[in-house]
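From the shared-data thread, chain only:
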Amino acid sequence: MSQKAGNTWLFIAKTALFFIVLGVFYAGQIIFYIETRFYFWGNNIILMLYTVNLYFSSKTYRGFQFGSIDWRESILSWILSLAITNSLQYLLLSLLESRMLPVAGFLAVLGAQVLLAIPLTYLIDKLYYRLHPAHKAIIIYGREDKSREYSKIIERHRNKFEISCIISQDEPLEQILNSIDESGSVFFLDIEENRKGYLLEYCFLYDKRTYILPTFSGVLLNTSEISWISNTPMFLPKSPVIDPVPQFAKRSMDIALSMLALAALSWLMLFTWAAIRLYDRKPAIYKQTRVTKGGKHFTLYKFRSMKPDAEADGIARLSDQNDDRVTPIGKLIRKTRIDELPQLINVLSGAMSLVGPRPERPEIASQYEEQFPNFSLRTKVKAGITGYAQIYGRYNTAPDEKLFLDIMYIEKFSIWLDIKLMLQTLKVIFNYK
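Structure, as C-alpha cells:
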C-alpha cells in the first residue's frame, strides 16, 4: 500500500474515533438531560461548541499524533481531552439552566467515552504501524559522541526506524549519497553547515525524510517571519522582548490564575506541609536563590523533597531521576509536581511567571554559560513554573537541548501558547517518566 493510501486510511480511522466519542456525548445528552434540550438551533449550537472544544483539547494533548507518541500516551491524551471538554460542557449547561445539573449523567457519558476510546486508540496505533512499517534510516554525524548518544535514542523507536548505516560527514561524498539513496530517513547530527546544505538539497530532491539536530541559528530561523525587502524575501527572527500589551496580559493572567490556584489548592499545600514536617521534623519549605529575567536573583520557594543535609558540603549539584538524597515523600511530590506549588507565591510577587524558562541556580547557570555562551538568553523573560523545557524535557535532557526549547518558547511567545502549555502540564503530571 502506498504512503498516500495509508495516510487516507489513518485519517478515516482518526475521524471515526472523533465522531464516535462525539456521538456518545450527544446520545448522553438525550438520555440523561432531555429536560435541558433547547430548540433545534440551540441543540446544534451546544453540539457545535462541544465539537470545537473536544477538537482543540485533543489537538492540545496530541491525541491525533499516532506514531509520534506511545499508544499509552495517546490514551492518556484522550482521557484528559474528554474529561476537560465534558467538565466545561457541564458548567456551560448548568449556567444556562441556572442550576447545577445532576453530575451522574455526565460521569456515565465520560465513562462510556473512555471505555470506547481506549481500545479504539490502541487499534488505531496498531493500524498506524501496519500502514507505516519501520523503514531504513541512516545517521550522518559530525561528532562521534553525538552519534553514539542519539543512536541509542533512535534505536528505542524500532517500530519506526531501522538504522542501516551510521556514517561520518568526512566520508567521501559519493559514499554518503549512496547511503542516502538506500534509506527512507536521514538524521543529521551536528553536520558542518556547507555539507549539510548540499545534503539537505539532495534529500529534498529525492523525497527523503530528514531529521536535523537543532542549532541556535536553526531555532531562530524556524520561528522567523518572512520580511520582504523590495522583491527579496528575508527571514526576520522575532525580538525576544515581549510587547507591552501582551506583557500586561501575561502578568494579569499570572496574578489571576496563581491566586485562584492558591485558593483552590490550599488544602493540598497544607496537607503536604504537614506530611513533610511529620516525616523528619524539619522545615517543609525549601528556599533557594535562583535567576530570573535580566539575571536578577530571587528566593524561590518549594516544598522540600530532599533530606535536610542534602548539600551539607555547600556544593551545588543537580538532581537526577534516581537521586538518593530524595525522601520517599519527596519522590511522590516530585512525581506529581506538588513540590512546585509554593512557587505560586513567587508568581504573585512578580519574580516568576506561570510559563517561562526553568529558573536555574546562579552557580549552575554560570557553569552552563561557560559551556554554552547563548545560555544567558533564557533570562530575556521571567523564569516560569512550566514551559517547553519542563514539558518536553526530562531529567537527562542535555542543557543545550533545554536551551533550544527555552529559546523556542521565547521566539514563539503568545498568550494562547501560554494557555496551551499550562494545559499540557496536566498531561506531564499523569505521564511522568
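Residues 135-213 form a domain with the Rossmann fold fold (CATH 3.40.50.20).
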